[in-house]
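Q: A small favour: would you put together sequence and structure tokens for a protein?
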Amino acid sequence: MSKIDLSQFEKKMIVRNTQDGDIDQLFELQKKCFPNMEPWKRKHIESHLRLFPEGQFVVEFDGDIIGSCSSLIVNFDEYDDKHTWDDITDEGYITNHDPDGYNLYGIEVMVHPDFRGMKIGRRLYEARKDLAREYNLKSVIIGGRIPNYHKHENELSPREYVEEVRNQNIYDPVLTFQIMNGFTVMRINPNYLPDDKLSSKYATLMEWNNIDYRARTKRHFKTSHPVRIMVIQYMMKNIDSFEEFSRQCEYYVDVAADYGSDFAVFPEIFTTQLMSFLEEKVPSKSVRRLSEYTEEYIEMFTHLAVKYNVNIIGGSHFVEENDQIYNISYLFRRDGTIEKQYKIHITPNERTWWGIQPGDAVKVFDTDCGKIAIQICYDIQFPELARYAVDQGANIIFVPFCTDDRQGYLRVRYCAQARAIENQVYTVIAGTVGNMTQVENMDIQYAQSGIFTPSDFEFARDGIVGECNANVESVVVGDVDLEILRRQRKSGTVRQLHDRRRDLFDLSFNVNTEFKPERT
């Protein structure tokens, strides 16, 4: 007898994290598992994978997906006892996922009907338990369906039905399975899933406690999480050298450090001040001369950020890449690392006088003060960019700007304040003032820089943390509180992020065309 090739008999079953390529199969699986319930939409699953990919699992058997589950992390104490599935998942998008939370919350499990009885659900539940142990979470919480309750609702209350199942007098395919997997009933929530007719809209809130959980002293309830910002309303005036420009910049960073600032924010294209000694009158040529100082500009601010221990929003600077000129704002972190954001929307003036080219990627940056975004001047006037940045986790949007008249300034200011309200986010605008008589197209400036908040009782009365006097060289220093922002998003007088009608409209951003010009 010849040697048997065992590989021909193998059928591999693996549990792994969900991937983008699984989405179409998940749609088909959902139709088979929940034929009478409203299915996921692609944007729901994409949001899960973007916000918490580690919490999404599938079971793959011989190359086909036969099971899946979705989860997010929450601080369960912040939710009402009678919360619904929509409440705990932000209507399926899990934008309320809290990496600093204490509980893993399971929001869906699916097992292909043809493969039930093969411990698929158990494998998925074990994956969740392992994740809770890995992340040192207190517990796994689920809102479980009771799909056989409709057969007994005329003679049993939900509580009585649950007791009968716990006593093994009634079999329920979901509740019985959850009890067998170590979950205990916490309470029964009405109207949990409005389209779950088999459960008469009820759900059992159940919990598995992680006995390996170790309390961490660094995880505690925060009464505040202040971030101090210094905005520089920079005076544009004629100078004689880059060294003179550098001394002015260092002066302001030094002041920011003296005030204990976490961020120092410079205005848009304030490096055009260097044009005052370049002796080039043709604007299209002068920007290319200016771009020759890019490396010196980057080296200077990298040094200042580390030396003074301040994160610096380096205004913006004209940079030549691949023979094109871009308007780029740099983030210089105080740990010495650097990020950059290209201006997305180019004004007619920039296009006509300097030939500026647009970028096409909205970035959100991690800092030691949370996630931030930078939107240069004109970009803040397009609400989609701010919405996208906040959906990616931004808590502060910095807006370096440069305007030559009051109308242009007010467009920036009004839109920055609108974005703060629409997205429950802090916005910061920093502009240039003064005159440069020797520089074509940069001769006059108008600005009143400031720090803005959402409009609610938790914040300053007029939604203004602080602002400079108009058209004078000055700074404004103010604190924004990320903990107050977090609470206001959950329980404010209005909750724009939560109450957005995703069933009627949504934002689609083409993130696949990532802009990758030559690195400087």
Q: What stands out?
A: The chain is about 30% helix and 25% strand. Confidence is low (pLDDT under 50) at residues 512-520. Residues 406-423 form the longest helix (18 residues). The longest strand covers residues 64-74.
